[in-house]
Amino acid sequence: MAGYGQHKEDIIRRLRRIEGQVRGVQRMVDEDTYCIDVLTQVSAINAALQSCAVALLDEHLSCCVTEAIAQGGDQAKVKVGEASKAIARLIRT
């Protein structure tokens, strides 16, 4: 089971909202909306995606990583490594 299982509906709701924002930006471009207004909306979409990513990462840390550490062994190192790589990817974007 995914670490975000208990909050799956919240995550889906966020992603649907972001999807709507992207459709809105497509419409803005189609309607030749002023560039700065489009960029403002793109910035809002980026912030929403980052927020969603941080929520997913938080769920991963509090569920998957915590369980692996409690069990110990190599699995704990694997999960911590996965989380580290995910954090590095988020920082780069």
UniProtKB/TrEMBL annotation:
<keyword id="KW-0238">DNA-binding</keyword>
<dbReference type="Pfam" id="PF02583">
    <property type="entry name" value="Trns_repr_metal"/>
</dbReference>
<dbReference type="GO" id="GO:0005737">
    <property type="term" value="C:cytoplasm"/>
</dbReference>
<dbReference type="GO" id="GO:0001217">
    <property type="term" value="F:DNA-binding transcription repressor activity"/>
</dbReference>
<protein>
    <recommendedName>
        <fullName>Transcriptional regulator</fullName>
    </recommendedName>
</protein>
<comment type="similarity">
    <text>Belongs to the CsoR family.</text>
</comment>
<keyword id="KW-0804">Transcription</keyword>
<dbReference type="GO" id="GO:0046872">
    <property type="term" value="F:metal ion binding"/>
</dbReference>
<keyword id="KW-0678">Repressor</keyword>
<dbReference type="InterPro" id="IPR038390">
    <property type="entry name" value="Metal_Tscrpt_repr_sf"/>
</dbReference>
<keyword id="KW-0963">Cytoplasm</keyword>
<keyword id="KW-0479">Metal-binding</keyword>
<keyword id="KW-0186">Copper</keyword>
<dbReference type="InterPro" id="IPR003735">
    <property type="entry name" value="Metal_Tscrpt_repr"/>
</dbReference>
<keyword id="KW-0805">Transcription regulation</keyword>
<dbReference type="GO" id="GO:0032993">
    <property type="term" value="C:protein-DNA complex"/>
</dbReference>
<dbReference type="GO" id="GO:0000976">
    <property type="term" value="F:transcription cis-regulatory region binding"/>
</dbReference>
